[in-house]
Amino acid sequence: LKGKIITVVGSGLIGRSWAMVFLSGGYKVKIYDNKPGQASGAITEIRKQLEELQQAQMLRGNLSAAEQLSLLSSHDDLQQALEGAFFVQECVFEDLEAKQTVFHEVENLVTESVILSSSTSCLMPSNVFSRVQNRTRCIISHPVNPPYYVRLVELVPHPETLPAVIDVAYSLMTDVGQAPVRLKKEIDGFALNRVQYAIIAESWRLVQDGVISVKDIDLVMSEGLGMRYAFIGPIETMHLNAPEGMEDYLQRYREGMKRVLNAFGPVPDFSGEPAARIIKEICELIPGEHEHLTARRERRDQLLMGLAKLKK
Ligand code: NAD
């Protein structure tokens, strides 16, 4: 696959990140945006980031920043951007109609063998690709922000997607150093957000019900569960947490787990008085102004960078 062309449609946060990930693997990347000047602006931004990563010795792949940049071009014309591509990664706004229109337009400009991939976080493949004629070559490749440090990619097929198409997406993601996982069928929220929402819901309920503070529930994750979840998942955790492994774990904890899980409250409303209270509490810890949030995001990315190094 190396040296082949990938077109990135939409050059916002995620489009730029995908471009950097693909470049690191030695792919040629053509980046397109329908807002004039946006794609060329993305190149300036990517150059800055690649040079900083090189300085920090955190650049991914075997190529220098200059070599990676030489593989990148920006386009204000979609047809030109798609020329020669074998894989199209769509990264436009999270708007169903916008995505449907983009894929309809793209399909009319590429040959049958080109793979059409969407970055959507929340939309279902059967909706995103409903205006595509040949849906056997469609797939969702859902990244996690920021993809440069958090390598997971959820591959979610349309009901008609060919296994060979999933295989190519899987190989591509592995080749550029991402960590792909396959969903066997589409489901709302995919896997990552379903698990994330379960955690958010119970954390919210515990704060809402006056059991624990915002600060402390976040510590339960960052100093507790999160410590191991960066390296092992929940199922392996069960397997390791009883002397004789999973069967033993189930025997010991099955009833307790069921009792606690059956006592979980309903889906929170995430609004009204409890929301106001939780907003106030988190803003006392991290004020909602731009500069504070930016500083915390920079801290997060720095720490993720260190963790990514450790995981290598
Ligand atoms: P963004 O707003 O930063 O960027 C969207 C870009 O798409 C803009 O540059 C816009 O000009 C361009 N665009 C809009 N319509 C277009 C069109 N018809 N043709 C070409 N370009 C067009 O958004 P983002 O955060 O980069 O999100 C992009 C996608 O990635 C969304 O589907 C989102 O759900 C998904 N995603 C985002 C995150 C995240 O954390 N931001 C994580 C995973 C997936």
CATH architecture of the largest domain: 3-Layer(aba) Sandwich
Structural class: alpha/beta
Cα distance spanning the termini = 23 Å
Per the CATH scheme, the topology name of the largest domain is Rossmann fold
Radius of gyration: 22 Å
Overall shape: it is globular
Are there runs of 5+ residues with pLDDT below 50, and where? Answer: none
**What ligands are attached or bound here?**
nicotinamide-adenine-dinucleotide
- Determine the strand fraction and express it as a percent band: 5-15%
Strand order of the largest sheet: 3-2-1-4-5-6-7-8
Taken in chain order, the helices and strands follow as EHEHHEHEHEHEEHEHHHHHH
What's the name of the CATH homologous superfamily of the largest domain? NAD(P)-binding Rossmann-like Domain
Q: What would you say this structure looks like, in words?
A:
This protein has helices spanning 13-24, 38-55, 65-69, 78-82, 96-107, 125-128, 163-175, 192-208, 214-229, 234-240, 246-262, 272-285, 290-311, and strands at residues 5-9, 28-32, 72-75, 85-90, 115-118, 138-143, 152-157, 179-182. The mean pLDDT is 96. The longest helix has 22 residues, at 290-311. Helix 5 (96-107) links the parallel strand 4 (85-90) and strand 5 (115-118). The two termini are 23 Å apart. It has two domains: 5-182, 3-Layer(aba) Sandwich (Rossmann fold), CATH 3.40.50.720; 192-311, N-(1-d-carboxylethyl)-l-norvaline Dehydrogenase, domain 2 (Orthogonal Bundle). The chain has an eight-stranded mixed β-sheet with strand order 3-2-1-4-5-6-7-8, sandwiched between helices. Helix 1 (13-24) packs across helix 2. 52% of the residues lie in helices and 13% in strands. The chain is α/β, with parallel strands linked by helices and 312 residues long. The chain binds nicotinamide-adenine-dinucleotide.
